[in-house]
């Protein structure tokens, strides 16, 4: 068994995200965008933009947080 300190000089390992993370992020983003527009009341262009921005932010967060 190797000691934990032996890995200090090793190159950083690349983490691979799963495809489920991608689909989950997209699904959550779409759902949040729809719910945001529904909660704001009317589908004006400003409310649609807010919904899309909030949904996109959550989709990116879900995708990056799911390692």
Describe the structure.
The radius of gyration is 19 Å and the shape is elongated. The protein starts with 18 loop residues before the first helix and ends with a helix. The mean pLDDT is 80. With 67 residues, it is mainly alpha-helical. The chain has one domain. The longest helix has 22 residues, at 19-40. Helix content is 64%, strand content 0%. It is built from two helices and no strands.
Notable traits:
mainly alpha; 2 helices; 67 residues
Explain briefly what this protein structure is:
This protein is mostly helical and 67 residues long.
Strand content: under 5%
SSE ordering: HH
Question: What value does the Rg take, in angstroms?
Answer: 19 Å
Task: Describe the global form.
Answer: elongated
Average per-residue pLDDT, rounded, comes to 80
What class, by secondary structure content? mainly alpha
Uncertain regions spanning at least 5 consecutive residues: none
Helix content: 55-70%
Total tally of structural domains: 1
The number of E-state strands comes to 0
Largest sheet: none
Helix tally equals: 2
| Distance N to C terminus | 26 Å
